[in-house]
Structure formats: C-alpha cells, structure tokens
Amino acid sequence: MTAVTHLLTDGDPGPGDPAALRLQVMGAVRVWRGDTELDAGPRQQRCLLALLLAHGGRPIAMTHLIDLIWGPGAPPSAVNVIHKYVGALRRLLEPGLRARAAGSYLVRQGNGYRFMAGPQTLDLFAFRQHVTAGRASAAEGDAKQALDRYVEALQLCHGHAGEGLSDSAAAMATFSAIDGEFYEAATAAAEIATRARRPSRVLAPLRLATKMGPLNEPVHASLMTALATAGHQAEALAVYRTIRDRLADDLGIDPGHDLQEAHRRVLDQTVTPAGEKPAEARPAAPFPLVRPAQLPPDLSVFVGREAELDVLRGLVAGMRDERRSGPLVVAMDGMGGVGKSTLATRLAHQVAATFADGQLYLDLQGDQAQEASLTVRDALPSLLYALGVSPSEIPDACDARIGTYRSLTAGRRFLILLDNARDSEQVRPLLPNSAGSLVLITSRRPLTALAAFDGAHLVRIDLPDMSSARALLTLRLAGLPNGAESADPEIVDEIIELCGRLPLALAVVAARLIARPRLSPATVLADLRDGARRLDASPGVADPRTTFSWS
C-alpha cells in the first residue's frame, strides 16, 4: 500500500467546520463544502479532479495527465484544456481565490500538478491513515483497536474509485490500484474480526468488496469465513457457488486454494460460529500449499534464437557448481520489441522443471515513464502473496518486506522472471536469498551495476538475422492464401527491412494480414513505404515502423 507522505493537517478544516471542504474519490467523485454538495463540473473536469485525488499528493506530469485522460487519442488542445479545468477546479475548491492564483489545493509542480490536503479533506488520505493505524495496532496485539481503525477505513469506500471516469487504460489502472487497497484492507479486517469473534462488523464492507471485485478470490474467501463465523453457513456456501460458477463461465478456471480451503472449512464446520467455543487452532503452514506457477504462456509461434538459447541454457547448466553461493542472475537487454520477454519466457518454460519450489513472475513496468514503473515497495507484495503471505501480514516498511522475502526464499529453488526492469536498483532487492534459484531479467538497458556488484550475467539480445525474420513472418502467416511463402521473396524481404527486422513490428504486420485475408503483402509493402516517409504522422500499431522508431 502506498505510504501517505503529504498529510497536511495544518489548515485542514475539521469535520465540524461549516465551511469545511470534503472530497470523495473512493466511489463516485463528489465534493462538499460543509453539508452542501458542489457540482464538480463536466465529465472531463471531474476526471481530471479524480486523477489528481487518486495520486494521493504525488505530482503528475502534464504528459502523464494527458495520457491518463485521453490515452493515445489526445487532441492538440489537451494542454490548454487541462489548464482551463485546473482554473475552474481552483475556483470551485476556493471560491474567494483571485484570478490566476494557485490556491492551497491544486499546486503547480514542474510542468504538472499535485493535490495537497489532509485526511479531514480527502477520503483516500483518511482511509490510508486509518489502515496504517490498524496495522500498527494489530502488530502490537491490540485486536480491538486494530478492528476499530480498519472498520473506520472501510466505511469510507462507496464503490469503484473514480466510478465511471476511466476513459483510458492508464486511468483504469490508477483507479484499480485504489480498489486493490480497499480489497487488501477488507481481507485484513476480516481476519482480525474472525479471530476476535466479531464478524458482523466487516460483513457490509466485504459484501461491497465482492460486488466491486466479482472475480476477487481472497475477498470472497474472507466473506465466506466471516459469514460462517457469524452463523450464516448457508449464505457462505451460496457465495462459494456464485464465484465458482463465475470463474468457470468467465475465465474457464476452477476456484483457487484460498476459496477451496474456505469452502472446505465451512463444509467441515471448522469455522466456529461466534458465541460457540472455538476449536483449537492449527498452526499455519510456513509456505503455501499450492506451488506458484506464474510464468506467462509460452509463444506457440516462436522461431529462431537458437544461439541465444544455447548460451542461456549453458548458464543454467552451470548452476550445478556446488561452489555457488548466490542465485544465478541473467539480465537480457535490447531495444523495445526485439523479443527479450518472449525469449526469457521460452527459456523459463524449458528449464522450469528444475526449480522444485515454483516460478514467480513480475512485470516491473520499467519500459514506462519512471513514475509509472513499479517501486521496490510496490513490487514486493505481489511476490510475498505468491509465497503464501496474506495481505494483512505483509509488513508496511520496505526494509521489512525485503527481509521477509529473503527469509521465504532462503535455501529454496525458485525460477523468478522479472520483466521490463528499469535499472539495477529496481531489481537488486528482489534477488532471492538462495544459491539454487535462477533470476531472469529483461531490460532495455544493460544492467551493468548488477553485473559489477551482484555477479549478473549480461546477455545482449540483438535483432534477428534475415533468415530468422523471414521464418517468423512465414510461420505467422502459414495457411493464408496470400501468406509469405506464396509472396514474391523480394516483397517479403523489403517488408522485413522496413520493419527493421523487429519481431514486434513483424508480428503487427502479420496480424494485419491475418485480420484482412484479402490484403496482399504487396499492398502492405506500399503502405510501409509511405509510412517510412512519415513515421510521426500516425503513431500506433497501424505503422509497425513506429515501434522501431520508439526504440
């Protein structure tokens, strides 16, 4: 959970102040002054406000704001529109503000903006403050105080963050992260309430959480346990049947371990209703009963890269050296779209059986803007959860999270794939404390510091040669009446060269031909020739050379 570093309590009006300003982002975006609700303006203006609130006091650069609001289809006037909305929001939040004054809430920083307030003003700040206090009380063994603070936090959520304002994938991810904080707090509160025999206090927020996250298994498992503890076994079983059917219909999968275990305990009546004498608690297993297997699917149309795979397999074979005292770290670097992640996934699947304790995967998003890439603090909960640590038991301090991760990986054999690393500092704390583990890392830059100080092997992934690129395009178009094998070889070769032999660009071209079977390679070539003279005219997958130009 993101720490709140900008809780400005000075000058933050209390709830009893008739002029107090209050804002809500954990649900539909709403603004009140005292008891009067204010009109937050047109939809796009409300979206801007929601995004500034959702970033919890952190600045948002103008380019990132534009991407959040419009995505790739931003109008040329986007900057002016944002400036106009900021001015309108400043006047809304501070009616007496003179023209062009910055005010106290929407503060300019660099070429972007940040929202400044305290927990009395913004529900997200108050939520995080209560959750932090609840965790501290739980760590001290004060279950009553912990539950009180968690319940205060959960009562602040009224639905999906920024409800109805996710117009881009980036905005959706921003608001979903806040929903995720609510889910984690709800499951942590449920665990405390169940142990304290006070399940009724968390039933309402848990029901809201299951409604918001209809496929969230930990939340449903927590609701089932709380219902059974409250004596509502029939409703608990109905919750299980509902999500079991939903998982089967929507995803084609069976319930995971948490749900199955909660279902078993309800059926066996090992969840004792409140008011009855609880059965003697069994010690918790130190590691998960389900072996993590998080690798992405292998690509069925993979071709070439035999030389690189031979080198990588040779490094893995060298792990048999008993003198090794640390994990084998292999960092693959190369331009975007060259196929680093695909190659790493292929190797991981080939050697996965060697690592008895399972495989972990994490996309560090280092290929995005720096503020969008995962911090070490935010990356560790995903790994800890896969290793069997419940959300409520994940330490708040980053150093404590690193220590827990190293303790859980010590002496075990894991394969860990860290995709899209930004730099060495981002991955160093994620290295396991085990000589029997393999860490595969992909990055656009050589991680030289990781090689210098952590013994990582650096492997450069270059563009495929012409024969491999031709084989890739031919395989992807196999079976089409106008596929690459039936096209003029000179046309195919020129398409490959105009795509810079970049595997991602070739995959985009192939997808276009598959989607339009009547389109000929000659027509695609003509489009590419035209696009080569105007790379910046229309960025997107329609012009695969754009991917090459970005790299």
Automatic annotation (TrEMBL):
Gene3D superfamilies according to UniProt: P-loop containing nucleotide triphosphate hydrolases (3.40.50.300), Tetratricopeptide repeat domain (1.25.40.10), Winged helix-like DNA-binding domain superfamily/Winged helix DNA-binding domain (1.10.10.10)
| Residue ranges flagged as DNA-binding region | 5-117
Assigned keywords, A-Z: DNA-binding, Transcription, Transcription regulation
PROSITE patterns xref list: OMPR_PHOB (PS51755)
Would the keyword Protein biosynthesis turn up in this protein's UniProt record?
no
- Span of domain OmpR/PhoB-type: 5-117
Question: Which Pfam families does the record associate with it?
Answer: BTAD (PF03704), NB-ARC (PF00931)
Q: Name one GO biological process term.
A: regulation of DNA-templated transcription
Q: Name one GO molecular function term.
A: DNA binding
* Cross-referenced SUPFAM superfamilies: C-terminal effector domain of the bipartite response regulators (SSF46894), P-loop containing nucleoside triphosphate hydrolases (SSF52540), TPR-like (SSF48452)
Family membership:
Belongs to the AfsR/DnrI/RedD regulatory family.
Put simply, this protein is called OmpR/PhoB-type domain-containing protein
Taxonomic lineage from the root: Bacteria, Bacillati, Actinomycetota, Actinomycetes, Streptosporangiales
